[in-house]
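Minutes, project huddle
Topic: does the predicted pose make sense with adenosine-5'-diphosphate bound?
PN asked that the exact inputs be recorded in the minutes so nobody has to dig through chat later. Recorded below.
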Amino acid sequence: MTSPSPSPSHQPIVISGPSGVGKGTLIQKLFTTHPNTFALTVSHTTREPRPGEAEGVAYHFVSHDTFLSLISQNAFVEHALFSGNHYGTSKQTIMDQVAKGLIVVLDIEMHGVRQMRENSGSSSGVDARYVFIRPPSIEALEARLRGRGTEREEDIRKRLAQARRELEYAEQGVHDRVIVNDDLDRAYKELEEFVFGSTL
Ligand code: ADP
Ligand code: 5GP
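Predicted holo structure (tokens), as shared on screen:
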């Protein structure tokens, strides 16, 4: 398929959903299917890199002290503590990716979504569109998290507990679209439709 022209609004797309639901998989498919269309923000995190995750590509991997120092410098658009680690989207990564003239995509958890929603009207706010990815069930989510094999048992439990809170938050209707990632190809089509709207 050829790449369609980007959505006329060029509004950033915020993708959220429980850990293990398939956000990364869907984002990867979007980027591969439509090259030179999207730019993913590179968050900062205090968690350890997984095998294959490169510095400055998957994340900026920083120490706890560096992260706190960045918070005190007001460097983040939003930041949150997730499963014992800090994660944040810097103003710099948004500026860098917007400068590429592509559609900016963020993959963040619920506290970040809430902060961005609250600040969207302010001068430093980001006017984005929000999509939530749901698992078909908690059991399916657990199977995916375990199947990915990247977290220790304790961390899987924390992520599942957080998943329930993410699902509750999504019940409040704060997202512009909710997509159930049951069948990957079907969910992907829905995401594509949301991202491109009527331009596809
Ligand atoms: P997230 O980025 O939301 O944490 P991932 O994209 O890493 O999640 O996906 C978690 C695991 O679930 C991966 O092993 C991925 O291959 C698998 N997965 C993703 N989507 C589906 C799906 N629709 N059905 C079954 N497995 C899936
Ligand atoms: P992971 O450790 O699996 O890469 O990410 C864990 C969670 O942190 C995911 O829900 C992901 O969306 C979220 N996340 C990643 N980067 C950021 C960020 O910059 N800000 C916030 N708030 N959440 C993030």
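Observations noted during the meeting:
- The radius of gyration is 16 Å.
- The pocket of adenosine-5'-diphosphate (ligand 1) is lined by residues 17, 19-25, 144, 147-148, 181, 184 (CB under 6 Å).
No decisions taken; revisit at the next huddle.
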